[in-house]
Design goal:
Order of helices and strands: HHHHH
Distance between the termini: 22 Å
Largest sheet: none
Number of helices: 5
Radius of gyration: 19 Å
Strand content: under 5%
Shape: elongated
């Protein structure tokens, strides 16, 4: 390995190239099927974040930042927060309209099955990008400390 090259050895980089797609697909699967069984947006978001952290550890921060820039992270988190909020408002409005104008305990059931995949996708992006940002910040902080 060249001295100016970032990241780990060739073996780790090769294994990362082979497994990164599988890890990402598994995170998406957990996110999309979370309303049917164990999993959901949070668990899927953690797995998606781990796939990007895997790239960061194997190849270094420069390669990871080429794949997912700071502006993209902020954009994805913002869009997913808006989708999450709009889904909640839309669902509440539909429930309120169907049940009439009386507010009872059933009015505050936030999500029905039709909206759960969209809700889980929004949560996945918020959690995934948030955890990756935290890990990236810690990696950059320790690099400055050395």
């Amino acid at each position: 390995m060249k001295s100016n090259e970032q990241g780990m050895t060739l073996i780790v980089k090769t294994v990362t190239r082979l497994t990164i797609g599988l890890i990402l697909m598994y995170g998406i699967y957990i996110t999309l099927h979370g309303h049917l069984g164990p999993g959901g947006g949070f668990a899927g978001g953690v797995i998606v974040a781990l796939s990007f952290i895997h790239i960061l550890l194997a190849f270094g921060k420069d390669v990871a930042l080429k794949k997912l820039t700071g502006k993209r992270i902020v954009l994805l988190m913002s869009i997913s927060a808006v989708v999450f909020l709009l889904t909640a408002i839309f669902n509440f409005a539909i429930r309120h309209r169907i049940q009439g104008h009386t507010l009872n305990a059933q009015s505050f059931v936030i999500f029905v099955d039709e909206f759960m995949p969209l809700y889980d996708i929004a949560v996945c992006f918020m959690v995934g990008m948030g955890l990756f940002t935290i890990f990236l910040s810690l990696a950059m902080l320790t690099e400055r400390g050395e």
